[in-house]
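Fig. S4 source data, part A: sequence.
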Amino acid sequence: MKQVLPSYHSYQPESRLSVLRLEIDYQLMSLHDALLAEDIEAIQFSKKLLNDYRLEWLHLTKQSVY
């Protein structure tokens, strides 16, 4: 994780995408745990973050194409 954090602050989309993949994976694990625990607040929070990550992913992939 320490190796990936410097790329978080990078403005290059490829670098941010690698960090974003890790964040998505982590949030999917959190969502799974929340679903198993039937924790409605945690489920909603994870879904919101995943949606934010999805939008950022689309934005970054659109940038890297051009």
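Fig. S4 source data, part B ends here. Residues 24 and 39 are 19 Å apart (CA to CA).
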